[in-house]
Amino acid sequence: xxxxxxxxVDWSAVPAPPNPRYRPEVIVGSLKxxxxxTTLDQAADAASRLAGGGIVHDHSGMVFPSASWAAPLLLDxxxxxxxxARVAAVGLLDDALCLxxxxxxxxxxxxHGMHVPICCAVxxxxxxxxxxxxxxxHPGKRLLAEARLHWRFDIEExxxxxxxxxxxxxxxxxxxxxxxxxxxxHAGPSRFPVPAVETEYPPADDTGQACLLLRxxxxxxxxxxxxxxxxxxxxxxx
Length: 238
What we know:
Blueprint: H1 2-8, H2 27-36, H3 40-51, E1 56-57, E2 62-63, H4 66-80, H5 83-98, E3 100-101, E4 107-110, E5 113-117, H6 118-128, H7 130-134, H8 138-149, E6 152-162, E7 165-173, E8 181-187, E9 190-201, E10 209-215, E11 227-230, H9 231-234
Parallel strand pairs: 2-3
Antiparallel strand pairs: 1-2, 4-5, 6-7, 6-11, 7-10, 8-9, 8-11, 9-10
Helix pairs in contact: 1-2, 2-3, 2-4, 3-5, 4-5, 4-6, 5-6, 5-8, 6-8
């Protein structure tokens, strides 16, 4: 049950920014109410509390770290909830992707990394439920299109091309913008800037296997198991 999944999250582990707009006390109850909502009023009331300081504060354009923890649960609601609740959940996910986090609270720890930008963490959850999101029609397509902009590249193998240039082979999630684009290399607890990331060979199928050229990064930094995120996402602050 969705209620059990909400209770299973260790909400005490969620970073709590010292911001008067953040209202963590509403998160659990509001998620449960949204999960069981069957009328427009019920869905709107629960969503308004989540949007009023639970996971985002839409009036000030701010997203909180709690959005990363809530994203998989909102996607469960998109899959299992009443149509009114589904619409509200898609809207909250869209806000979580587009709004900016508070300074010093723009990254979260996930199973995929230690300093993941909030928007990238939410985007990965959205991409992982692609079929469910697309089933929501135009709002779902718009949400998935936004999630694809918060790309991630997992490096499986590297090959030096020339001084300061590394060919990286791995899996690309999302869409790499037209070059030049700046990247942020995550290797364990460390992060390194990559001044230019270019697509050498784009994904040919749904596996996402691709080859990127990384310019301006030492070869020893780009190791198998490391990952790239957009620099712009890591720099987003309210």
